Amino acid sequence: xxxVSTKYHASDANEYEPGSxxxxxxxxxxxxxxxxxxxxxIKGYEKAYQYVxxxxxxxxxxxxxxxxxxxxxxxxxxxxxxxQHRSVNLTKEGFTFPPAQFLENTLQTFEKEVLAxxxxxxxxxxxxxxxxxKVHLELLFIHPYREGNGRTARPVATLMALQAGYEGFDWSLxxxxxxxxxxxxxxxxxALMATLLDAALVR
Length: 203
Known about the structure:
This protein is mainly alpha-helical. The chain has one domain: Orthogonal Bundle (Fic-like fold), CATH 1.10.3290.10. It contains eight helices and five strands; from the N terminus they run E-H-H-E-E-H-H-H-E-H-H-H-E. It has helices at 34-55, 64-75, 103-118, 125-142, 149-163, 171-175, 178-187, 190-200, and strands spanning 9-10, 90-92, 95-96, 168-169, 201-202. The strands form two sheets. It has a three-stranded antiparallel sheet, with no helix packed on it. A hairpin with a 2-residue loop joins strand 2 and strand 3. Helix 4 runs antiparallel to helix 5 and helix 4 packs across helix 8 (190-200). The longest helix has 22 residues, at 34-55. The protein starts with 8 loop residues before the first strand and ends with a strand.
């Protein structure tokens, strides 16, 4: 799991679980603490990872609907909107993500201009890292889901690495440079992201 950061601020303020002091989003399990949610998300990650390993081919081009399915498998036991795109505007630590009203058009462009040319993922190691960095960055910059964007983007990156013949990433190495990771996302610096992924790639 990535390090805990300041929570999102959303345009819909009536979306937190009663009794959670506005710290936990409304959820199917009635969880009221971040620790309880984290415990369930660990289970969700394993489910999403197994879905990725068992349901995608190495020569498969990815679509936004595939990423939605990964998000759904990750969070469907926790949130009723798992796999669905957000309808609220989000900001985090002063950074504003693309407005919800333009989200579907933005995702169509992402699928055509980013996912299509970079998946299935193959090529030299340098090419592979650049392709994964571009998809990873754009997906996180768009932030299509109310919660769980980073946690979904990591299985997607892992899938692309598997397509290219690698074993995935040691994300703990990325987390050690989390400030650089956030900077790369907010500035769409794919070269910096590729450097961070290079250090974490399991060859």
